[in-house]
Amino acid sequence: MTKIVILTGAGISAESGLGTFRDIDGLWSRYDLDEVATPEGFARNPALVHEFYNARRRNAAEAIPNAAHAALARLEAARPGEVLIITQNIDDLHERAGSRNVLHMHGQLTRACCAACGHGWSAPAELHADTPCPACAAQATRPDIVWFGEFPYHMEEIWAAIRAAELFVAIGTSGSVYPAAAFVQDARRAGAHTLELNLEPSQTVSDFTEARHGRASAIVPAWVAELLGA
């Protein structure tokens, strides 16, 4: 039974070299998000969208899980069946660190899907506007990513887990993106202890019963060691 629900955001992967939306010199700053992270942008210029996500896919493939990812994998291994990671991230660093019980609410760079028939499959290193769907052959392949204006994945399972959790922890999240920003309020209403682990106070820090701030690679392993008594 899931007792610990952990929400992770861009901050946990930043130390692995993957930028956040707010990075001034990062990949995001070189593109207009309306053009590369919306269904409308994809309809207008699929080649540009694929160029952006091919670059992100290369970036993620070169990244290495950091101590925070490893600590969460250690926690899951020590508490089998009790830990669920909900991530806003589209990289696979949690899985590469050893975590297995992971829900990607915003999709995954390692997956592709067809805008015509909905079929999904493992993405190659590069996708292009003329990449055919292996199921229906339509040239409507897109990254399997939840864009702005689209509904996140796994929401029924996520809400159920949050409302049943004894401990809810948010790591590396800004508290500015919904519905994830509302998870802590739901967890508290259900009686969970809530903890924020973040580089700096998030926009929802006042909703948590406890908060610790610093680099994820330092504070997450320290918290896991404390929780496990080792």
Automatic annotation (TrEMBL):
Pfam families: SIR2
Top EC class for this record: transferase
Record's function text: NAD-dependent lysine deacetylase and desuccinylase that specifically removes acetyl and succinyl groups on target proteins. Modulates the activities of several proteins which are inactive in their acylated form.
Organism: Rhodovulum bhavnagarense
PROSITE patterns to which the protein is assigned, alphabetical: SIRTUIN (PS50305)
GO molecular function: histone deacetylase activity, NAD-dependent; NAD+ binding; protein-malonyllysine demalonylase activity; protein-succinyllysine desuccinylase activity; zinc ion binding
Cofactors required: Zn(2+)
Keywords: Cytoplasm, Metal-binding, NAD, Transferase, Zinc
Presence of keyword Ligase: no
Compartment(s) where it occurs, according to its Swiss-Prot or TrEMBL record: Cytoplasm
Binding site for Zn(2+): 114, 117, 133, 136
Record: active site: 106 (proton acceptor)
Family per record: Belongs to the sirtuin family. Class III subfamily.
Residue positions binding substrate: 53, 56
Domain Deacetylase sirtuin-type per the UniProt entry, residue ranges: 1-230
Name of the protein: NAD-dependent protein deacylase
Cofactor note: Binds 1 zinc ion per subunit.
Entry-linked Gene3D superfamilies: SIR2/SIRT2 'Small Domain (3.30.1600.10), TPP-binding domain (3.40.50.1220)
Domain of life: Bacteria
